[in-house]
Each structure stands twice: as structure tokens, then as C-alpha cells.
Amino acid sequence: MKTGIQHLYIPGPTNVPEAVRQAMMVPMQDHRAPDFGDLGLGLFRDLKTLFKTEAGKVMIFPGSGTAAWEAAITNTLNPGDRVLMARHGQFSHLWIEMAKRLGLDVQVVDLAWGAGTPINEFARILGNDRHGEIKAVFVTHNETATGVTSDVALVRRAMDDCFHDALLFVDGVSSIGSIDFRMDEWGVDLAVTGSQKGLMLPPGLGILGVSPKAIAASVSNRMPRAYHDFADMLRMNETGYFPYTPPIGLLHGLRRALDRMMDEGFENVFARHHRLAKGVRAAVQAWGLDMGAEHPSLYSDTVTAIRTPQGVDAREVIKIAYDRYSCSLGSGLGPLAGKVFRIGHLGDLNEGMCMTALSIAELAMAAAGVQVRFGSGVAAAQTVYAEPVARAVQRLHAAE
To answer: Rounded to 5 degrees, what are φ and ψ at 249?
Structure first.
């Protein structure tokens, strides 16, 4: 019989704070009541602040981030449209497969899993597209399978440099709410996220930022859709309502989660994620192991993929952590199965929680056959996490 809590260190769903969980436990409401729209209007306003968009709209669809992917495609593109995508991880792969199944003509740039979005290759392809046949460019901002963050601003620059008019789609499911995202500044037309990552909620909300250009495209496109129709959603959202029965409890949870984030300050949330991730990466380096990202410039602040040594099955590390130590670590996906395990460090998280994940990972790795010195990763993370304290002490001494 297990005692204590089940530790959750996967990159989503993430830990739900108690205050958010309690906020969801509300009596059912009349979603057509005259005051219900106040809840929706406040959510749309604050989500726009999080997405950093003034010009665009943010919509909330029942479903996961995948539902928002589909809504973005079916409202703005037509069957047979050519789109440009890169495959460098499980989630970029799944987006490609969805686009194909929805009838798009997908031009795929295949890369090693661990690479980022190929800016130069995208620029070359777009520059050669003299007749504007490519209607959209898709970017996975944070590839959760490999722990890689790509530079969306550079993709926009490449598009602008060759005066290309394609729509820019961005998967921000494991970045928005945890990593700085600038929808207007980066010229993003459709930005997708979900409730179960940085927003610290259960799965169930697909959240989609939409630019004026994308809204205009939705008026004339011909791809079938019904439940996810932008026109229905936008019309009702103007007064804070929804065209169908919304997930009321999740909306109240989202209200509380956004309040927590705004109390901390969005920029402070991003800085916290960077600091926590830096400590995890220091631990991996202390273990002498490699990460999924092929270059430090690509390191993600929300998830780290850790490569086990040759001859050690990462699935065994994950199993030992779960069975012996009541800890869920992220698994390797696709061709990375058995080669990596992942530590998610996003959402409602602090230094102590990260060090717990690292200490359990050391135990599980050792039991699976990895040569690891106990405490080495934890000590490396402690050094990182002690830096703000050390600076504060130095300032105090300087003032004396």
C-alpha cells in the first residue's frame, strides 16, 4: 500500500493548485443568465494580456489543445492548400498528420528529433514560392517530446524578408503561460494552447489566439466545420457568452489560475520557469548525461528530455520511479521511446518540487543501471537555486 502523495513530473497534465481545484467546485449555473457573461469577458480580456495581443481575439473551446489545432485549420484553410511544416518531435509529427487528414497539401521538412524549427530552410522554401502557393507556415514553439523551444520571431522575420503572405500558425500548448509569448509582436495569426499545462488546470479547454488576418480568412474559407466555427464563437463571445453549453467549472478554475498568475506577474512567472529549468539542466549535466535538445540555444524552460546511457532502457527508469517512489516521469515518445525520460517543470512548481524530482530520478536511474552519484544532480540544482539568496545576502552586507 502506497502512502503519501503521487508525485507528478510529466509535462502535462500538470499539478493543479488547491485554490484552483476549489474554484472549480461550484454549483451549476445558468450559462444564459444575465450576469454569466461577466465571467467570460474577464477571461477573454486577461487571456489577451497573456498572449500579448491587442489586435487579436482569444477563444476558448471545450477540448484539448488538439481541438484548438483542428479549429485553427478548419476555419482558415481550404482543402488542397499547401502548407509548410517541420517534423522534429512527436507533437510536430501529430500536427502534420492532422493537416494531411484534413486534406491539406503538406510540405514537410524532416529533421532530427532534438532540432528546432529550420529557419534557414523555411526561408529558402518561402523565398522560392514566387506565386504564393504556400498558404500557411506551422511552427511548434515548444516541442514537448524533445525539450526544444524554437524561435518564432525568427520565423516571422524570414517570412517578412521574402514578403510572404502566408498565415503563421504556432503550437504554444506547452509554452503559453510558462514561456514569454508575443502574438502581436511576432505576427502570429493562430496561437494554440491548452488548459492542462502552464495554466494549471485539468485537460478540457483548447484556447486559441486569432489575428484579424486569420478572422478575415475564416469568412471566405471552405473547409467544413460546425462545433468549432469561429463566426458562432466570436458572435457570442462579444458579450462573454458561448454558442453552446460551456464547461462551467473549468472556466471558474481558469479565472482563479489567471488571478494567481497575475498576482505573481506574468513576467515573474516566465522568470520562475527559466530559473527552475536552469536547475534541472544543471543536474543533468552533473550526471554526465545528454539532453534531447541538440544545442543549448534550444533548451526548453518547461520540459527537459534526458537521454539514458546506451544499454539502459529509459522505460525502466520511469517504471522504477512510478512503482517504488510514487513518481510519474515523462516517457520517451515515438522513436525516443526507451531512449529518454522527461522531467516536466512547468505550472504550479517551485524549487523544492524540482529537487524532489531530481532526487527520485537519481534513485530510479541507479536502480536501472545508470552510474550516478547520489546527490550530484540535486547539489547542482541547489547551486542554481541558491543564487538569488546569495545575491540578496551580498546586497544586505553591502548596505551594512
So the answer is: -60, -40
> Beta-carbon neighbour count of residue 219 at 10 Å?
10
What is the pLDDT at residue 398? 65
Cα–Cα distance for residue pair 46/52, rounded to 1 Å: 10
pTM to 2 decimals? Answer: 0.95
In the chain, the amino acid numbered 375 is G
Residue spans per domain, the chain: 7-12+265-399, 18-263
Query: Domain 18-263 belongs to what topology?
Result: Aspartate Aminotransferase; domain 2 (3.40.640)
Give tens-digit pLDDT for 17-31.
999 999 999 999 999
- Res. 392 pLDDT band, cuts 50 70 90: low
Cis previous bond, 13, omega within 30 = yes
CATH 3.90.1150.10 fits 7-12+265-399, yes or no: yes
